[in-house]
Amino acid sequence: MTERALSIEGLRKTYSNGFQALDGIYLDVERGDFVALLGPNGAGKSTTIGIICSLITKSSGNVKVFGMDIERQRSPVRRCIGLVPQEFNFNIFEPVEEIVLNQAGYYGIPRREARRRTAAVLQQMGLWEKRRGSARELSGGMKRRLMIARALIHKPQLLILDEPTAGVDLEIRRSMWEFLRETNRSGVTIILTTHYLEEAESLCDRVAIIDRGRIVEHGPVSDLIGKLDVETFVLNTRAPLRRAPALGDYPVRLLDSRTLEVEISRRHSINVLFERLSVQGIQVLSMRNKANRLEELFLRLVDRGGR
Amino acid sequence: MSNRVALFTIVSREVLRFMRIWLQTLLPPVVVTALYFIIFGNLIGPRIGSMDGFDYSQFIMPGLVMMAVITNSYSNVVSSFYSAKFHRSIEEMLISPMPGYLILLGYTLGGVLRGLVVGVLVMAVALLFTELRVEHVWITVIIVVLTATLFSIGGFINALFAKSFDDISIVPTFVLAPLTYLGGVFYSIDMLSPFWRQISLANPILYMVNGFRYGVLGVSDIGIGVAIGLIVAMVLIAFGVALALLERGVGIRS
Ligand SMILES: Nc1ncnc2c1ncn2[C@@H]1O[C@H](COP(=O)(O)OP(=O)(O)OP(=O)(O)O)[C@@H](O)[C@H]1O
Ligand SMILES: [Mg+2]
What is the pTM of this model? Predict the structure, then answer.
């Protein structure tokens, strides 16, 4: 099969209260891609994911998963997709093991095989010791891992994770990243949403940025960052300054007496900036990017509407 | 094969649920029935004398069993399915390849099993107070299963529309309870004036109670064929309605 893992055309969604959450989404995801779906709160990420996973009904548009229409070929489409939702959606009174076993059952996996797979995914997610307790006894990060384990039980070819690392500690996050990379390497297409842009930058090869129900940017991470024509740097000076120095066509702001914020566009060079600073006798102790580059791009893109 | 596994998963999960919380699910109907037998059967019953040629405690037994079956199958499905909506664990089923009718069937079977377990328990209690002989075993079984099916599906429809836990107790309290009490559990409709008798005939529960009474005691206010035909028709309609609502995502997909 050469079909795309996911293809979305003109997807619109108006909720029953009249709110239009999606306003014509177009998005293609190739087989084996690792895509980050980024966007501010309320942009429409979860709505899009909900429609792909048949939890939300679309108002119009087309969604195909591995070439199959999500409404006309429901059953095979659903077999391909594994979902880790943004909000906890299991019965907290059920034992951990049963939650995963039942999910296997809904996919028609016979009990014996289900038990084998459940043991495997629970061990993989570090939840084996907790399997007999009810899900309510898990910590927040463990609950999230439980949802990942559950999503893997039927070996999906397209794994969709809606903010899987929210509320997960640093160490576990790293191991989750490693796990996701490995899963992707084994051929599984992954779509993930996150508000940690460094996560998107380090994990994903492509990024789609969604804002107010539309995709405003989509492409390989490196291309997008290449589009960034201005970067903001923060400089710490040795001596206190009274006002922001005049630096010609470098926009500059004095944040506090020893901290300057300077925007440098691609047309300029950092060398010239330092020359101008030295001429005025300003010594710079250290310098850093104000934001990570993807973050900068993101803010510029979603700021456009004057939010 | 894969559908069978899925169905089995839902049904066993449902059975496990009501067994696990037996204090809330299995014990109350037993206690309530015992009270009815003590008060109406043993204390008041002898003063009432016989009804349709039976001891009063014998006469009310079928109705009490049906009452327990009806409320328990209904409430099993309505609370279990509504909780799944509330916890959002329903999404586990909605994202799976299971067709809608399987979800409906699974919950319905769960409710029927709860109804049957409670029915058997209540009958066992009845045995302590009155002698039991079942005239037509198969009719009894058929009526109980059909009734439990109907009210399980009813509970399912209720849960689809429910938006809060309050919404799941409205129908049992304001619809099922009155219809059951007025459905000839405690009296024969022959005692009523012609006007009220006619009104009573519009009460579907009357047919179930009488059908069951016919199965157990061999007497009924209603023809047994009519009773069974009517319940079957209602089951089919209810199943169709529930399935259509489910497929349209009413109350479960935004
Ligand atoms: N059931 C609903 N009814 C009405 N409006 C809704 C519903 N669900 C979501 N919305 C609205 O749709 C918009 C998009 O919501 P969505 O959950 O898709 O955002 P998101 O991109 O996932 O945001 P976040 O990063 O906060 O998770 C929001 O304005 C939200 O208020
Ligand atoms: Mg979201």
Answer: 0.89
